[in-house]
Amino acid sequence: MKIMKIKGIEVKLHVSTLVIIGMVGFSLGQWLFALTGGSAGWGQLVFAGVVGGLVFLFSIVLHELCHSLVALKYGIEIDEIELYLFGGVSKIKGEPTNPRQESIISVVGPLSSLALGGLLLLAFFLVAPVSFIGGVMLDYLGWANIFLGGFNLLPAFPMDGGRLLRAGLWKRRDDKLSATKTASRAGEIIGIIFVGLGFLEVFLVGIVGGIWLVLIGLFLRNSAANAYEQARIMNQFEGISVGDLVNEFSTQIPPDMSISEAFSGFFMRQKKQFFPVGTNGSISGVLVLDDVKDIPPGQRQKKKASDVMRTVDSFSTVSIDNSGDEVLTELNHMDSKPRMVLVKGSGDDLVGYVGVAEMQFFMRVASQ
Questions:
Q1: pLDDT tens digit sequence for 146-159
Q2: What CA–CA distance (Å, rounded) separates 175 from 95?
Q3: Which run of H or E residues covers position 268?
C-alpha cells in the first residue's frame, strides 16, 4: 500500500508493518500503565499507543529515506521504499561502485535513528516537568530509536552494520565478492546466535518473548545467505555483455493479423510466451500470451495484434553493449510479467530481448 512519495521515491507499507506498529504501541501503553500505577485512563493509554506507533513508523521511514537520498546523490536509482514486519528496505537499483560510497550510504540510516533518538530524549527533559505522559512517550521513543540505530549497526550483512563491514573488507582486499562472503557469514553466525538466545529465553527463563528473538535470528540468517547468493550471481554477469545474452527476434507477428491467427499460428506452434509485433524488422510492440488468453475466443477474430500488443515504451530497454549485471538488476526489480528487457542494437533498432530464461541458460552453461 502506497502511503507517500518523497523526492520521486514511493514509500509503501506492507500489511505486516502493522504488527510492529501495534507491538510498539502496546508496549508503550503497558509501560505507561505500569509507571502510573494503573491510574492512566484507557483514553490516555490508547492515545499514547497510537501516537507512539505512528512516530516509530516515521522513524523507520526517516531511516530508509536517508539511505535512499544519499544513494540518489551518487547516481544510484531508487525503485521504492517498502516497510514490513522487520523494519524497512530501500529497493536500490544498482550497487555502490566503491567502498566509500557503500560506507556512507549504509551509515546514514543508523545515524539518523541515533540522532532522532537523542533529540527525543532531549525533548524528554523539557517536556517531563510539564507533562508526565508526554515525558514517558518521549523517553520510550527516544530509547526505541537508539535501539533501532544500534541494532542496525550489528555486523550482519545485509543490514547496515554488515554493509559497513563489507565496505571495510572490500577496501582492504580489493575484492567485493570475497568481502560479501565474509560479511554474509558474519550475518549467518549472528542470526544463529539470536536463535539460540531465543530458545534459551523460552525454555530456561520461560519468557515467550524469546520467540521474537528466534524469528529475528532466522530472518538474519536467511537474509545473509540470500544476499551472498545474489551477489555471487551478480558477479557472474559483471564481465558479460548483453550481446552475449540476447535472444534475437527471429519471427514477427504482423500488426494487422487477427488475435485468432496469432494464437494458432504462433503461440500454439512455437510454444512461446510472447512475440514481437512489427513489419520488416521494425518492432512496434510485444504480444503477450497472458493478454491473448484474456480475450474471449469469440472475439479473437475481430481484434488485431496491434490492438492487444504492449507498446515498446511499456518495457525497459538496454543497449546491446550494456553489462549483464545491469540487466539482472532490472529483472530483479520487475513485478509484472513477462520479466524481460528489450535490447537495442548499434543503430537503436530493437534486435531482441533478454529475460529470466536467457539469464538462467547462461548460468547453466557457465557452470559446465
A1: 999 999 999 999 99
A2: 14
A3: helix 268-270
